[in-house]
Design brief:
By secondary structure, this protein is an all-alpha fold. Helices cover 72% and strands 2% of the residues. A two-stranded antiparallel ribbon has the order 1-2. Helix 1 runs parallel beside helix 3 and helix 4 packs across helix 5. It binds fe (ii) ion (2 copies).
């Protein structure tokens, strides 16, 4: 069972309808990775919810069933907000995105239909372990002040809730199927599969809009920004991610500190409604 309250919040983000695709001012590369992630979620998170619905039939622990329901309710709110954001970003200059999304949608529908529940749960935990590590990294580093305010607010809320429900996919996998090696391999596949979509989106957007790169200092600046961010990734993100691959990893060991509690309270207060 999770010891962290998993609060289901309905948020009212006020997205303007003309957000520039360069959502981090001056940094098209980081921006397009964020756009890629935001485009992934309205397909990935419904797939997680379908997986949990199937898993629920096999869960015999009342507390875990409660966690599972809250997990799905949070994910349901996340992808709905990402759809609103994705609609608000001016993506009309990138017609091939619809094609990439179609392939992704078909993948997830196929996984739900023909892959085992064990695979789908291990995929879910592969995503959750990665988002837990990434959320901790993002909060440690601090949100980029150049990020569009609406995008920043959405991601802070989303990452916070990812940390609130960080134990659920792990526990459901353990309860229903279990097995470290399988979880690791299917989880690595999940991370590769998601990463491939995000990189495809980002590469395509960079190629389709060379003007955005020029406006932000050209290819040389792009390489320089990447060189500057690499040490943070190596020092702060990589160790967290590598730990999730250990047979001794459990998200129950990851603390939810006072700063996160404060942020959770802030978002509960901002929410249109919240169920604690
Ligand atoms: Fe989510
Ligand atoms: Fe999640």
């Amino acid at each position: 069972m999770s010891h962290q309250p998993i609060v289901v919040r309905q948020m009212d983000f006020d997205f303007p309808d003309d957000i520039d695709p360069v959502v981090v001012a001056g940094d098209p590369e980081q921006s397009y990775l964020i756009v890629g992630l935001s485009l992934l979620l309205p397909y990935l998170e419904p797939y997680l919810i379908r997986t949990m619905k199937e898993a629920k039939k096999h869960v015999t622990d009342a507390d875990l069933t409660d966690d599972l329901e809250r997990f799905s309710a949070q994910e349901g709110q996340h992808y709905r907000q990402h759809i609103l954001l994705n609609t608000a970003i001016r993506l009309d200059r990138f017609p091939r995105l619809a094609e990439f999304e179609k392939v992704l949608d078909a993948d997830y529908r196929r996984f739900s239909k023909s892959r085992s529940l064990r695979f789908n749960l291990a995929y879910a935990e592969g995503f959750e372990a990665l988002t837990t590590a990434s959320a901790r990294f993002s909060f440690e580093l601090g949100i980029d002040p150049n990020m569009h305010a609406s995008v920043s607010a959405l991601f802070q809320w989303h990452l916070l809730e990812e940390l609130e429900h960080r134990t659920v996919a792990f526990d459901v996998y353990d309860h229903v199927c279990g097995g470290y090696a399988y979880r690791l391999l299917a989880g690595l596949y999940a991370q590769w599969h998601m990463g491939r979509f995000i990189r495809r989106v980002s590469r395509y957007m960079l190629d389709a809009d060379p003007e955005a790169i020029e406006r932000c200092g050209g290819r040389a600046q792009l390489r320089e920004r990447r060189r500057k961010s690499a040490p943070d990734v190596r020092r702060l993100l990589l160790p967290k991610l590598l730990k999730t691959y250990s047979p001794f990893y459990t998200p129950h060991d990851i603390p939810f500190d006072a700063e996160l509690e404060e942020m959770a309270a802030k978002f509960s207060a901002l929410a249109r409604s919240s169920r604690g």
